[in-house]
Write a structure and sequence with these properties.
2 domains, TIM Barrel, 379 residues, Beta-Lactamase, five-stranded antiparallel sheet, alpha/beta, disordered N terminus
């Protein structure tokens, strides 16, 4: 915290001598008992006054800390940055904020977050430091996790480990094929649900890249979709807004393509998303909102985007035959969809009783293990 580092030993000044004035008893007590590491440092590069927190945190005695230039205690990799921050104070900055590592007596280092202000007329710098070692370790662990996640996704992309599968969507009550939802399976370790791979890609900031890779593999098989059936692909709003997505989907038979918006988080600005969807609709592409009923975000998507398809979340479908509240919600959604001109698709149908109730309620389409598991396209 100083721009000059000259030799010579400094001596501790008792807190009442701070700034050359009598120090009130209450302030003296605060200085001594403060949890933060408080100090005065001279432009000669030595500490002048330290509170008790220094010795308690770093393990040195006051004499050990006061007798050597404070840069001796700073991690070698942080010394230039520390001097640069001190130079700002000499250049007239009123306050600087920075972080560096201080060596403890046991040889370990602690991260300190500094706020420092000058009193150059008195030749001293006022400093207060907070121990943020745990916070920095958490950040480092998070950075390592993101690096691992990004490396895992990169490996998946490099080895082309994403395989498309297709789940049939059937009309009710006739059980005629309406379309297929395109999904992905990952032939890579660790073995886990596809949703976790996409979550990792999202955390690593490369979800659109993974989604586009999956979409391209799905569209490559679209020519085998049965005549009269549509293909539904999943895309987050971020992916849907990309130029690459627009260019890719227009290379297929767009009249048979449905895009499912999968993002559960709230969209902050619907205007660009609405504009992108309008451009897709001009090419004949239709829109579906996934997991309707799973939360406020999906409901807001329905209201703002007015999709051609509304996919009811499997939570509403599970046990709908025995749960009167779920039946009431589904019945309300049937009326709502009819009012706005959308078609309903019930997801996650696993029991014949569920299917029967959905048909009776007027739900027009359904998919789930009872109707067909995800797999290769027939034929």
């Amino acid at each position: 915290m100083a721009t000059q580092l000259r030799g010579g030993r400094s001596h501790a000044l008792p807190p009442p001598a701070l700034a050359g004035a009598a120090f009130p008893t209450t302030a003296d007590r605060f200085f001594d008992l403060a949890v933060d590491l408080l100090c005065l440092a001279g432009v000669d590069g030595y500490f002048k006054v330290l509170n008790r927190a220094w010795s308690e945190s770093l393990g040195y005695s006051d004499d050990e800390l006061l007798s050597r230039p404070y840069l001796d205690f700073v991690h070698p990799d942080d010394r230039d940055a520390t001097v640069a921050e001190a130079s700002k104070l000499a250049a007239g900055f009123r306050t600087v904020h920075f972080r560096n590592r201080y060596r403890c007596k046991d040889g370990s280092y602690k991260w300190l977050a500094w706020t420092a202000s000058p009193a150059m007329g008195e030749g001293i710098i006022y400093g207060a430091a907070r121990d943020v070692t745990e916070e920095m370790h958490v950040q480092a662990d998070a950075a390592r996790l993101v690096h691992q996640q990004r490396a895992g996704i990169r490996h998946v992309l490099a080895t082309n480990a994403v395989t498309p599968v297709f789940q049939p969507i059937m009309s009710l009550p006739a059980l005629e094929l309406r379309g297929f939802e395109a999904l992905s399976r990952f032939a890579s370790t660790p073995v886990r649900p596809p949703s976790e791979w996409f979550e990792d890609a999202d955390a690593a900031g490369i979800r659109p890249e993974l989604e586009m890779h999956a979409i391209r593999t799905q569209l490559a098989a679209s020519c085998r979709v049965a005549p009269g059936a549509y293909l539904s692909i999943n895309a987050s709003p971020e992916t849907l807004l990309s130029d690459e997505f627009g260019r890719t989907v227009r290379d297929v038979d767009t009249e048979r393509l449905v895009v499912e918006v999968t993002e559960h988080a709230a969209v902050q600005d619907y205007v660009p998303l609405q504009e992108a969807i309008n451009r897709l609709r001009q090419h004949g592409i239709r829109l579906a909102i996934d997991d309707a009923g799973s939360g406020f975000a999906s409901l807001k998507h329905v209201v703002r985007l007015v999709p051609e398809f509304i996919k009811l979340d499997l939570f509403l479908i599970r046990d709908v035959d025995s749960d009167p509240v779920k039946r009431a919600v589904v019945a309300a959604m049937v009326g709502f969809a009819a009012e706005i001109g959308s078609q309903l698709v019930a997801e996650g149908v696993e029991e014949p009783e569920e299917l029967s109730v959905l048909a009776d309620l007027g739900v027009g389409n359904a998919q789930g293990f009872y109707l067909g598991r995800p797999g290769p396209l027939p034929g």
